[in-house]
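sorry for the late reply, my laptop died twice this morning and i had to redo everyting from scratch. anyway the thing you sent over, i finally got around to it. pasting the sequence first so we're on the same page, its 414 residues, then the predicted structure underneath. double check i copied it right bc i was rushing
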Amino acid sequence: MGKPLDKLFDKFLQGQAIFRDRDALRPTYVPEELPYRDEQMNRIGSILGPALRNAPPSNILCYGKTGTGKTVVARYVLSLLVRKAHQSNVQSPLTAYVNCRIVGTNYRVLRKLCEDIEARMPDGSEVPFTGLPTDEIRSIFKKKLDVSSNIMVVVLDEVDSLVKRDVGQGNDILYGLTRMNGELEQSKISIIGISNDLKFKEMLDPRVLSTLGEEEVIFAPYNAVELKGILQQRVNIAFNDKAVADEGVINLVGALAAQEHGDARRALDLLRTSGELAERRGDDIVTQEHVREAQKIIERDTISETVKTLPMQSKAVLFAVYALANKGKKDIFTGECYNVYQDLAQALSLDKLTQRRVSDLISELDMLGLINTTVISKGRYGRTKKIRLAVSRKQIGTILDEDIRLGRIAEEIF
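ok and here's the structure:
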């Protein structure tokens, strides 16, 4: 091993001067106390309380933008509920947490629930990763749950992604879970749905909506003062003494996150990345310079992830804008973009969308912050959109070139 790496690893072996517990800055961390969410915790707690008497709680739908504390509050209240049951010597409810963005199909959701029951009440049976009909794994889940009298509370995080991925399948799994109480003989199930999309209910089947949305809890964004309080709490847990001595560091992180609509998750991520930058450089304290550099890194990573996960049609539209901008076009209009898009769609063997649908995709890219659009009136000739890239051409070009299909046709067309 080379000497430079020896010195690098030795630095980490000698002990961390920055972090005491970096996990305290990750989204999955649940602290002992949750500031500024008493109203939501009390509301959810009062709804789940009947589970301590072995009575099924109402279903709950938690709304709010990313980073407003929905997931951590739900997990926090459930952990206290289970702890209270143990302290009071009453039957503890079964709990399960499913991230629907990761576990994205009916089969996998039901399999995850079976695994959680098996962890608490093992019967020696295992559900295969794939291969069973959905009806069969649903029957297995009901059989496992109904072995004895149980209350099971299931948290479906980012539940909107189930429906967005496949409206029919998403509604099916939600309908099946919310109506399962009528099929169970001894046990009951309660759902906590968590959504970042305030329009999520519009995608739900009315039959699902009437049961899933029995109780609603709204999470407003954190303001700058609240973000500062959350950050100070996590700094005391995550960092060694005097590692964040400058109060301006917390103020800057809070201010930058407040600009992003009060996203506590982003604030904690920014703080953690700042500490990691200081650590890699061998610095003993985190400074405002580390914070500003960390912000650039996070923004770059966010844009990359956003572009990489776009549907192919949206990528083609974005690539059309990029290609025109790369040719020196400062103001790009919808018609010009559509003409280039058609060539790309043909080369990619995609179905050619109508100009109206491409205009909708342009609006979606605008909402994601990848492009900027301005509506221009042309009098009796109607209206059009003036389009500009909102991020650097170099960055978009690098990301799009990594896509094998787009990279190949770029040379052929442009």
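The radius of gyration is 25 Å.
thats about all i looked at so far, will dig more tmrw
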